[in-house]
Amino acid sequence: QVQLVESGGGLVQPGGSLRLSCVASGFYSSVATMNWYRQAPGKERELVARITSNHSTNYADSVKGRFTISRDNAKKTVYLQMNSVRPEDTAVYYCNGMTFWGKGTLVTVSS
């Protein structure tokens, strides 16, 4: 059994920064691809960023150059560094990997 627990969400002003963390408990595979998704109100869940076992990364066009995904396998943790955030980044952010999902952390970008 795997549990993924996200943290780090909150209220941030446009142009600000936030770092999300996703900690895995139980089994954690260092070879598993890990993902961050988000779901804004009234919209479908979308992939934000992905990191493979060899730390290769992919990003949604909307966050390229602003967000950075990383992982620390020794800590069983995946991060999402969010810079230059925009109001349209407001969403619940979910960690996904090894077929499991976290419960999400809310990010609100507003002045």
Strand residue content:
over 45%
Task: Provide the structure class.
Answer: mainly beta
The shape, in one word, is globular
Helix content: under 10%
Low-confidence stretches: none
The average pLDDT is 95
What does the largest sheet look like?
Answer: 7 strands, mixed
Q: Note the run of SSEs as H and E.
A: EEEEEEEEEEE
Number of helices: 0
Account of the 3D structure:
- By secondary structure, the chain is an all-beta fold.
- Helix content is 0%, strand content 53%.
- The protein has strands at 2-7, 10-12, 18-26, 34-39, 46-51, 57-59, 67-72, 77-82, 91-97, 100-101, 105-109.
- The strands form two sheets. Strands 2, 4, 5, 6, 9, 10 and 11 form a seven-stranded mixed beta sheet that branches.
- Strand 5 (46-51) and strand 6 (57-59) form a beta hairpin.
- The mean pLDDT is 95.
Structure characteristics:
111 residues; mainly beta; seven-stranded mixed beta sheet; four-stranded antiparallel beta sheet; 0% helix; 53% strand
Write a brief structural summary:
The protein is an all-beta fold and 111 residues long.
Give the helix/strand layout.
Layout: E1 2-7, E2 10-12, E3 18-26, E4 34-39, E5 46-51, E6 57-59, E7 67-72, E8 77-82, E9 91-97, E10 100-101, E11 105-109
Parallel strand pairs: 2-11
Antiparallel strand pairs: 1-3, 3-8, 4-5, 4-9, 5-6, 7-8, 9-10, 9-11
